[in-house]
Amino acid sequence: MPQTAQTSQAPAVRLSGVRLDRGARTILEGIDLEVPRGSITAILGPSGSGKSTLLAALTGELVPAAGRVEVFGQPVPHRQRELLELRKGIGMLLQGNGLLTDLTAGENVALPLRAHTKLPAPVIEQLVLMKLHAVGLRTAVDLYPRELSGGMARRVALARALALDPPLMLYDEPLTGLDPIASGVIMSLISRLNATLGLTSIIVSHHVRETLPIADRALVVAHRGIVFSGTPAELQASEDPLLRQFLRGEPDGPIAFDPASAQPRARGAAAAPRPDAEAR
Fold this sequence. Notes:
alpha/beta
């Protein structure tokens, strides 16, 4: 994405007064946040709090009902051509990997290169091997998704997300369905790639124990808003009842799975979600 001298020092991501709706439902409102360049930011929160809805706003999939969303100092565009250009600079690792089952690992990684560049085939082949090598799977280039373990498939999807060298990486629940060892490998890769490639990374997750150690900043989303923003250490030291409940996985507290039993937040806190306001 082209940058002017004025935008070069802007945060990688900035949301100002953003409200996000899904149809008639308000999922998030009053969202103000900045993601520094080169950082790893963890967006945490219970299921249904709207974490992935934030990612949809960054990619232009969801247009805010109010407020402004900027990526690298530029507002997220609405025109299709400009939006496609923006998305070339954003890598996305999806929960389900999104690998095409009839293509090999190498062919999956090559897809964005073939779709968005005019590079000759031999150059694309070398780039594919480089991306797979970066995630430790160079030898898996000719394997099909069905021949890969869950952790290997996730790493191939990560290699594909990195194919166009995006400066911004979005991870939507990157540990879903992975065992503890594979989860550790993925989180270590995210941290290493962020440092070595100079990326900015945003991780949406409810896996607190695995995510906080590699994060520079942490946000907690609940009750239609951001209820915490700070360092992982500050989050873990917080005595806020809602944060304690989330971090400890306690069934009773301000975060209620049964909306009828929800405990109200203090005055000035974000309102509790309506029973029908479930979002990813």
